[in-house]
Write a structure and sequence with these properties.
It contains 34 helices and four strands. Helix content is about 75%, strand content about 0%. The N and C termini lie far apart (about 120 Å). The strands form two sheets. Strands 1-2 form a two-stranded parallel ribbon. Strands 3-4 form a two-stranded antiparallel sheet. Among the domains are: about 1-115 and about 125-270, no CATH class; about 850-930, no CATH class. It has about 950 residues and is mainly alpha-helical. This is DUF2339 domain-containing protein.
């Protein structure tokens, strides 16, 4: 009996706080509405015309009045309310009865109307103390008094257990009767003002807890009744509580739901009937859904979803053998109830309502996304989705034997959730959860060898445990097909009402079927050639493309985004077919070829996605190249320069990229046009570079450090690419060509600074420069890039910013200086010019002569072309020669060479000075002559 007393105490406390927390929000809203409606009626009775309101305000006021009348006044006391109004001679004008869709707008209308009216006065301390706290404390005190009375009877042996139980049951029934009697005689307006402190509700909750305690004590403590009788009685109490909640509110419904969900846990039996268990839970859920539909409740149905989901997950994880059928059917019943019972079609109006837009928010996609994801009833959809997905994961994670193949159970649950997501506009989260669960569970199924009992009820033996990979693969593909059909149907039926919903299902239809097909192909298929998965990919691609074509014929703007998404999805389906039938070089060529076919489709249809498909195809090709640069594998790559698999594997996609960029040169979509141009330029440069790499390394592609000759070719290619992009920009202006040309030039300069002068410089590496005096490594590594930079700088004059042109000219001059300097060293040291050889006197003197000669040459060129950068480079070389003469030649040269070094330097300096004097004195005369 002690346990029974403790249970009663805990029950009363739980009822108290649960009633308080669940009802406080609704009570405040209803109190405000009651005062507003009363004020309006008084004004009408007095003949006072309210302030003019807009049509929207009048509609919101009517909805608010209906909500107050429906929620605040119980059904049984409506007649008394009308009598009271008649006595006061207050006859309000008739108001139209709202439809179901309008009824669901009440909460938003109430909050909007409340902002335009005067703030509700704060409730006084006297009201809280006398009208609320007294009720709460009275209910608790009443329950404690009954418990103390029973405790006294036990301690003094006054009554037998049977009599005590009978009296407790009678006490509970009297409490319920008292609650109903008080409810019928309630004063009008109390329900609205003190809905969270209603005496009838508190008495009824106390009665329910008392009866729960009586039945459990009779079964668990005194063993007067058996488990079946106890189960039936507890269920009756729970369902009665749910029924009474229609009169007393959502808090009592939560108590009844809690009782129904905990009833099976209170009944202990050695031979549990799983079908009966989940059948009872399903009936409890349906009863809650029916009550919620009648009263428009959102909180209690969410609790029902949680309760059923916890039972499903708990049973699956805790049982040694899992009977999957009742769990699956209970959850499917929950999904069916969400579709047809509650919320059903009631919230289908959400797409017709425009979300409130504040200043500055109209152009924020994030706000629209949040409104889309937060569609009511959010709690119901989230809890139902979690219940389904967590149960599916529990089926996969359970180490027990399962009566059905886990793949089948998971597929049925996920497809059911997807059906809910596709059938109702408000079911955004079920659609998202179903999509993620389909991909995740399919991957888990493929990665793990899950076991199930082929004959449930027998002891699991190795012979009775089966793992059927072919069934798993088939179920995975079937799920993909079902998702595809759901997507097409959802887009067809719902997009005109809600473009966002159509976009969501277009994404699901394009990603989930293809993703499931990829999982099935990679995990179960024949990676060499698989005709089954190829047919699956073709089917997906054709259905998506056909659906896009059909939807586009409607010419409705709402279909524009779904159509483009479906086009991309069709490409992904065909892409799966290409991978299922080909590999290596053929796959690399067919992917951009398929994208090029979509580009040709722009001649017939103006779908923006057609061009983006080609861009996606090129990105995929680049990903394949990064994964396997040899395209066909190192062992299959020939050593023949240029004419090998690399030419086709890199060259054909690059060619298709160039042609696509040219075909789309007049595309109105600037982003895709620029992106394709950038990809085409990158792939052309990549093709040339990889062919050079292959040829310079003897037909072998590896990660070895390139030689100076190979790096020089890369630098020349980059310089050439800069010039080509500059030419294209002159003919067809584009930011990709404009900035890409300058980027290529800067990258080439970085190569020069890092590789040519330091990392690969033969002076530091000791690399042999070759036998030929002029045509050697120094020509390729320094003179040719220098000349290329000089030509690019000359070509860029007037076409690119002056600092960039000067940088190019300076890079060319530095490379020419390096070629001349290293050529001098090669003349004196031979083919090997490594630093360990030191310097000869003649070599040291030659540097001064050559540097001065280059300085004079640069000065002449700078004067001829009026290039200030060349003249500055000339001055830098002359200063370098002067510094060398005083710092190096003075100490290292001897005899005639030292004298000649200074004599030559002096002559050159005097000549330069004379040159500048003539130039500077001639400029004013020329200027005067021109004037």
């Amino acid at each position: 009996m002690t346990s029974f007393l403790l249970l009663l105490i805990v029950g009363y406390v739980v009822a108290f706080f649960y009633t308080l927390s669940a009802s406080i929000k609704n009570s405040r809203r209803l109190a405000e509405l009651e005062k507003e409606v009363s004020s309006l009626k008084a004004q009408m009775a007095a003949g006072v015309v309210p302030v003019a309101m807009s049509a929207d305000d009048r509609e919101q006021l009517k909805d608010a009045t209906d909500l107050a009348a429906e929620s605040a006044t119980p059904l049984a006391s409506q007649a008394e309310t009308e009598t009271a109004e008649a006595e006061q001679n207050v006859i309000p004008p008739p108001l139209p009865i709202p439809s179901k869709a309008e009824a669901l707008k009440q909460e938003d209308a109430v909050s909007a109307h409340a902002t335009t009216t005067q703030a509700t006065p704060k409730e006084s301390f006297e009201s809280r103390l006398g009208a609320r706290w007294a009720v709460w404390l009275g209910g608790i005190t009443l329950g404690l008094g009954g418990i103390l009375l029973v405790k006294y009877s036990i301690e003094n042996g006054l009554l037998s257990p049977a009599v005590r139980l009978a009296m407790a049951a009678l006490f509970g029934l009297l409490l319920a009767a008292a609650g109903e009697a008080i409810r019928r005689r309630a004063v009008p307006g109390i329900a609205a003002a003190y809905s969270n402190a209603m005496i009838p509700g508190v008495l009824t909750a106390a009665a329910s807890l008392t009866l729960f305690g009586v039945v459990f004590a009779a079964y668990g403590i005194y063993e007067y009744i058996g488990p079946t009788t106890a189960f039936i009685l507890l269920a009756l109490v729970a369902f009665a509580t749910l029924g009474l909640s229609l009169l007393h509110g959502q808090a009592l419904a939560g108590l009844g739901l809690f009782g129904s969900m905990i009833t099976p846990a209170l009944i202990v039996t050695e031979t549990p009937n799983i079908w009966a268990l989940f059948g009872f839970l399903t009936v409890s859920w349906v009863a809650t859904a029916l009550a919620a539909r009648y009263q428009r409740w959102k909180f209690v149905p969410a609790l029902a979803n949680i309760g059923l989901g916890l039972w499903a997950v708990g049973y699956t994880m805790a049982s040694t053998t899992v009977l999957a059928e009742p769990v699956m059917f209970a959850l499917l019943a929950m999904i069916a109830g969400l579709i047809w019972i509650w919320p059903g079609e009631v919230y289908e109006h959400v797409a017709d309502e425009k979300p409130p837009v504040t200043e500055g928010d109209a152009a924020k996609p994030a706000n629209r996304l949040l409104v889309f994801l937060a569609r009511p009833p959010l709690a119901i959809n989230l809890t139902a989705s979690l219940a389904i997905v967590l149960t599916a994961l529990a089926m996969l994670a359970s180490s027990a034997g399962i009566s059905m193949h886990p793949a089948f159970v998971v597929a049925v649950l996920i497809i059911g959730l997807a059906a809910l997501g596709a059938g109702r506009l408000n079911a955004v989260w079920p659609a998202i959860f179903a999509s993620l669960a389909a991909l995740g569970c399919a991957n888990i199924l493929a990665q793990n060898n899950l076991e199930f009992l082929s004959t449930f009820g027998s002891v699991a033996t190795p012979a009775s445990i089966a793992v059927d990979h072919s069934l798993q693969a088939s179920i995975t593909r079937i799920m993909g097909i079902v998702f595809l059909l759901f997507a097409v149907e959802a887009i067809r039926r719902r997009t005109l009402r809600d473009a966002s919903f159509g976009t969501l299902w277009a994404l699901i239809g394009s990603i989930v079927p293809v993703g499931l097909g990829v999982i099935s192909f990679v995990e179960y298929g024949n990676l060499t050639r698989d005709w089954l998965h190829a047919a699956y990919g073709v089917a997906i691609g054709l259905v998506l493309f056909g659906a896009a074509y059909r939807f586009d014929r409607s010419s409705a703007p709402a279909f524009q985004r779904p159509v483009n998404i479906l086009i991309v999805g069709s490409f992904l389906g065909f892409l799966l077919t290409i991978h299922a039938l080909t590999n290596g070089l053929a796959t690399t060529i067919l992917i951009p070829l398929l994208g090029f076919i979509y580009v040709l489709g722009t001649r017939r249809r103006s779908w923006p996605a057609l061009a983006w498909v080609m861009a996606l195809a090129l990105v995929i090709v680049l990903g394949r190249i990064a994964w396997e640069p040899t395209i066909v594998g190192p062992q299959n790559l020939g050593t023949t320069p240029v004419f090998n698999a690399l030419l086709a594997g890199y060259g054909i996609p690059a060619l298709l990229a160039v042609v696509s960029a040219w075909l789309l040169r007049h595309s109105p979509d600037l982003r895709v046009r620029n992106f394709l141009q950038a990809l085409a330029s990158l792939m052309v440069l990549l093709t040339l570079a990889i062919l050079v790499r292959h040829a310079m390394n003897g037909g072998v592609l590896n990660d070895a450090v390139p030689t100076l000759g190979e790096q020089s070719i890369y630098t020349l290619l980059t310089i050439g690419m800069s010039g080509v992009l500059m030419t294209l920009d002159m003919k067809s202006p584009s930011p990709i060509f404009r900035y890409g040309s300058m980027l290529a030039g800067c990258l080439a300069i970085v190569n020069v600074l890092v590789a040519h002068f330091f990392v690969l410089n033969p002076y530091f590496t000791g690399e042999n420069t070759g036998r030929w005096p002029f045509f050697n490594l120094l020509l390729i590594g320094y003179l040719l890039p220098g000349a290329a930079y000089a030509g690019l700088a000359f070509y860029a004059r007037g076409k690119r910013p002056q600092p960039y042109v000067a940088l190019l000219a300076l890079a060319g001059a530095v490379l020419g200086f390096a070629w001349a300097t290293l050529s001098v060293r090669r003349f004196w040291q031979g083919e090997n010019i490594a630093d360990w050889k030191g310097f000869l006197q003649g070599e040291t003197y030659s540097y001064s002569v050559v540097w001065l000669a280059i300085g004079v040459l640069l000065l002449a060129l700078g004067s001829r072309f009026d290039a200030k950068s060349l003249r500055l480079a000339s001055a830098a070389l002359v200063l370098l020669a002067v510094a060398k003469a005083f710092l190096i030649d003075m100490s290292n040269l001897e005899g005639v060479l030292r004298a000649l070094s200074f004599i030559g330097l002096g002559v050159v300096l005097i000549g330069i000075g004379l040159f500048y004097q003539k130039i500077l004195t001639a400029k004013p005369k020329d200027a005067a002559a021109e004037q």
